[in-house]
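quick one: nicotinamide-adenine-dinucleotide bound model?
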Amino acid sequence: MSKNFKVAVLSGDGIGPEVMAEALRVLDAVESQFEVGFERTFANVGGIAIDKEGKALPQGTIDTCKAADAILFGSVGGPKWENLPPDEQPERGALLPLRKIFGLYANLRPAIIFPALTGASSLKEAVISGGFNILVVRELTGGIYFSQPKGVEGEGRERVGIDTMRYSVSEIERICHVAFKAAQKRDGRVVSIDKANVLSTSVLWREVVETVAAEYPEIKLSHMYVDNAAMQLVRNPKQFDVILCENMFGDILSDEAAMLTGSLGMLPSASLAEGSFGMYEPSGGSAPDIAGQGLANPIAQILSASMMLRYSFAMVEAADAIDAAVESVLNQGLRTGDIYQGKADEQKVSTREMGDAIVAALGKGKA
Ligand code: NAD
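yep, here:
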């Protein structure tokens, strides 16, 4: 009997609907090749939700997400809504409440550079030849961004700014499990980032990481200080498989890793809750400069759908098939404008043509 999953589809603004259309066609192809059904419910989010329903995250959209097994999110925002008060703007008004309502405590951001696209990186070809595939697993709801006390207090030159960094064993444990489980589905290596030579939270972090690691004897664990990790990422990114970080270190290192790939339109992300629920979205924004012109790269959205299959639906084989289909069209030389370098073996294609080629490659992969 075929399995059925419920997906809340929140396309949003700008290029969101265009790239989402291609991701949904890829899901159609997965349905017909694997024994699975994706029941999709569409709901407004971001600017379009403000225009149609008066707020960035309407109650109906929250209800749709609650009834789903996962959220496939496009992107939100654009110049039209930039003058609204910050809390009512599309990004802040939709994304932060979604994280809070659904307890999305683990952020997964792959930084993948496919061998065909190494020229797009800011790093020298020799450093990245053959490409790299890093997954940053970042704790998203604890650490210095959220711990109390915080604020600015006192008078005059004695005024002080206070931030507190606090982590509990249970918070560290649950993000460790996410990282180790992710590594099981990849190359089986985890580098845990800390500053255990200075920070007490890092001493505890390292201790808990070691304890949890004992449950995953097949995973190769190592530790790295955050300053060294920042350096190693630009020196030799190929050494990393999974990078496990607390919130602030992960914020910084995941941006660094993503930018090493040089192609924002290629990068997916996942934010996971306890259990299998997650929200999946491209790392980039709504790209209003190219929206509605068929220029957007749909690969970030398609790889977000692949992550949804991998992490929420445990469909590793189908996720691998999508990733392989993407790699094969890149190897064929197909490029949307953002990754086109003008080489003789490249062919510039539209959003739709890129989607067509990935769907076709997926079909060939299965046969
Ligand atoms: P952006 O990521 O939208 O665009 C930055 C640059 O990258 C642009 O030149 C854009 O054309 C390009 N780009 C991004 N995705 C692309 C794709 N798939 N294909 C081809 N090119 C792509 O960032 P921005 O310009 O700073 O922000 C635009 C809007 O998006 C703002 O309103 C911002 O608030 C919003 N935003 C939303 C999210 C989100 O929904 N999660 C994230 C970031 C920014």
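The pocket of nicotinamide-adenine-dinucleotide is lined by residues 15, 19, 75-78, 91, 95, 264-265, 281, 284-290, 296-297, 300, 338 (CB under 6 Å).
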